[in-house]
Each structure stands twice: as C-alpha cells, then as structure tokens.
Amino acid sequence: MIIYLDPDDRRWTPKELGKHWSDLTNFKDEPEKIGGTYLATNRKMVNWAELANHCLSCLDTIAYSDEYDSIYCATCDEWRDMTCGDPTCEYCEARPAKPSDCE
Q1: Pairwise CA distance, residues 50 & 3, whole Å
Q2: Is residue 47 part of a domain?
Q3: Could you tell me the CA-to-CA distances from 27 to 4, 14, 30, 53, 91 in Å, in that order?
Q4: How do residues 12-62 score in pLDDT, each as one tens digit?
Q5: Is the pTM of this model over 0.70?
Q6: Buried b (16+ CB within 10 A) or exposed e, 49-67
Q7: Which residues pair with 71 in a beta bridge?
Q8: Cα dist. 16→2, 10, 11, 20, 43 in Å?
Q9: Which of 20, 38, 71, 99 lies at 20 to 30 Å from 50 by C-alpha?
Q10: C-alpha angle with apex 90: 67 to 86, nearest 5 degrees?
Q11: What are the two backbone dihedrals, phi and then psi, of residue 51, each rounded to the nearest 5 degrees?
Q12: Is residue 77, in this structure, part of any structural domain at all?
C-alpha cells in the first residue's frame, strides 16, 4: 500500500518509492489528488472536518437515537452524551445504561 501525503505538487516515480512499474496495478495516467487534513490511526483515515461525526475512542461513525435524543457509539456500546440531570426529562430518565440495551 502506498499512501501519498505530500503537501507539494511533486510527482513521485515508482523507482523513487522503491517499486517497479510492473508492481503497480490499476495505475492511472493522472492519479486523483486527495487534499486536506486527515487523522490516520488504527487502519482508518478520517477527514479532519468529519471528525466530529466519529467516536474519539474507536473512530467509527457515531449514531443518533431519536428515542433518547442522544448520540452513541455502537462499537464501544457507550453513549456520547451525558444525561441532563433533570429527573423529569423524558429522554434521560428512561435511557438504558448502554445503547445495546435499547429495545
């Protein structure tokens, strides 16, 4: 796998990367340019602008529960919103400890 993360408009050749032309498959004449800032960790790349839509622990996409008016991470099985503390709140009062416990 080759990941090109160079901010300049350089054109690297396979030889400079320690590869040969025959090693590359599906090579395009003009490779697509990817720009922006990304977070790369645990075999995942997340665009920095999209980071707010991902769990900060596992980087999977977070989900929203209409029933409990709260966001959660299904992979971590944790709510990402704190309860409001209002004992009469219809959302927080009935919310289970874990999202997987929802019906």
Answers
A1: 20
A2: yes
A3: 14, 11, 9, 32, 52
A4: 665 666 666 565 555 555 556 666 777 776 677 777 788 888 888 888 889
A5: no
A6: eeeeebbeebbeebeeeee
A7: 64
A8: 12, 12, 10, 9, 25
A9: 99
A10: 130
A11: -60, -30
A12: yes
Q: Quick one: which of 55, 60, 62 has its CA closest to 43?
A: 60
Q: What is the pLDDT of residues 70-100, one digit of tens each?
A: 999 999 999 998 888 888 888 888 889 999 9
Cβ–Cβ under 8 Å, residues 5 and 12? no
Structure token pair of residue 94: 């009935």
Q: Report how far Cα 11 is from the mean position of its chain's Cα atoms.
A: 28
Residue 82 in tokens? 């704190």
What is the span of the domain harbouring residue 32?
Answer: 21-101
The residue to which tokens 């040969």 are assigned: 20
Whether 8 is in a domain gets the answer: no
